Amino acid sequence: MLINLNNTYLSTIYTVLTYIKIGPLLLKIVKVVLFLNIFYTKKGKKIRNLANKVETLKMLNNRGHTVNTKIWIVDNLVENISEDPKIIEASRLLSNRELVAFPTETVYGLGANALDSEAVKKIYIAKGRPSDNPLIVHISNKDDLEKYVEEIPKKSKILIDKFWPGPMTLVFKKKEGVFPDEITAGLDTVAIRMPSHPVALALIENSKVPIAAPSANLSGRPSPTTAKHVTEDLFGKVAGIVDGGKTGIGLESTVIDVTGEVPIILRLGGITKDQLEQCVGYVELDSGLISEKQTPRSPGMKYKHYAPKAQFILVQGKPEFLQKQIEKAKYEGKKVGVYTVDERKSYYHADIVIAGGSDSDLNTVAERMYSVLREFDHTDVNVIYGETFSVDGIGSAIMNRLLKAAGNHIITE
User: Fold this and answer.
1) CATH number of the domain bearing residue 81
2) Residue 137 and residue 230 in one domain
3) Are residues 108 and 218 in the same domain?
4) Both 212 and 344 in a single domain?
5) Tens-of-pLDDT digits for all 413 residues of the chain?
6) What CATH number does residue 394 fall under?
7) Is the CB of residue 281 less than 8 Å from the CB of residue 193?
8) Which end of the chain is least crowded, N or C, by CB within 10 Å?
9) 107 phi and psi, to 5 degrees?
10) Which residues of 2-15 are buried (b: 16+ CB within 10 A; e: fewer)?
């Protein structure tokens, strides 16, 4: 069967599939399916978010399937880290449209010049990230904010004074003509934060541009909290990885929309709702965080995320109830993993039991959560059962991520 690849949309899909080295037989099958899909839609209806990526995908495909990835190990505790030759070299790559992964106080980010459309497109390709998913822009100086946004509302100023630099992202009305559409996904708003990690700040300062930086992992995988995690996902896909050790908080930033009268939390993160309300009064939760039927509006929250390779299921109930699920799965011939806490690690009888922090200090759970999910990827378990946590304080962000990782699959006693 002859397939006309002159169609822009087919050509785009074909380029993507070629870039990720899909098998030749499967590629032919997918091409046929795509052809039929386009043929039977009204006048070749657009395959969303791909057609405008054709030229960039072809450009990267022509460069070859891999990039020479350089890794720099830096000491983020030294003074004047911005003068470190490794930081200067990494910053130069960022200025030259390349991708560089680096640590922040939350998770490792995958950085690109936020003002350069071609550089930003590489983020979507390296991660396999849907292009309707806006990116967060990182700055190194509070005073730079006015260059990029239409206005800085009063409540946002209060939050900035309290939590910047730190794990808080604010969504503002963007200034027109500053950022490419790849940053904002075509929206009239832009998400901006000022990180507190010295390596991140040094890279932004030295590159002399704002840096777009989603988490430095393949889309859908657990976010990286060490350079090793980044290497597992992105080695050969990015120009450089700055190894600054483990991140601190272990969860992404809290994202708050400050364009309206009442601030709205779009993504739960390292700063809790209670902390925000102590500063600016009542803060709403985006409906997408409350109802599974609503689509979240924050970067990184629209699709299944944070998932390990094995099936991940949350279990809400007593330890005895979870142990019954383990025994049932083992009877079915499955190798079973359990994600628990230090206090209950010895209780469960499964093939692999991993504790990630203490139930009495959920900050330790947040810090280790992604690392534990990735640790299971180095085992041969078929299914992972995870405990649930209190939704008080940072627990709400932990449960938000675990539910995303499980695809909202939860068994209740």
Assistant:
1) 3.90.870.10
2) yes
3) yes
4) no
5) 333 333 334 444 444 444 444 555 555 555 455 444 443 343 343 443 344 334 434 444 444 457 899 999 999 888 899 999 999 999 999 999 999 999 999 999 999 999 999 999 999 999 998 878 899 999 999 999 999 999 999 999 999 999 999 999 999 999 999 999 999 988 999 999 999 999 999 999 999 999 999 999 999 899 999 999 999 999 999 999 999 999 999 999 999 999 999 999 999 999 999 999 999 999 999 987 866 555 556 665 555 678 999 999 999 999 999 999 999 999 999 999 999 999 999 999 999 999 999 999 999 999 999 999 999 999 999 999 999 999 999 999 999 999 999 999 999 99
6) 3.40.50.11030
7) no
8) N
9) -140, 175
10) eeeeebebbbbbbb
| pTM for the full predicted model | 0.82
Say whether both 315 and 393 belong to one domain: yes
* In a domain? residue 84: yes
Q: How many helices (H) and strands (E) does the chain have?
A: 14, 16
Q: What share of the chain is helix, strand, coil (3-state, %, to 5)?
A: 40, 15, 45
Q: What is the dihedral of CA 79, 80, 84, 90, to 10 degrees?
A: 110
Domain containing residue 22: 8-54
At residue 6, what is the residue type? N
Number of domains in the chain: 3
Q: Are residues 75 and 186 in the same domain?
A: yes
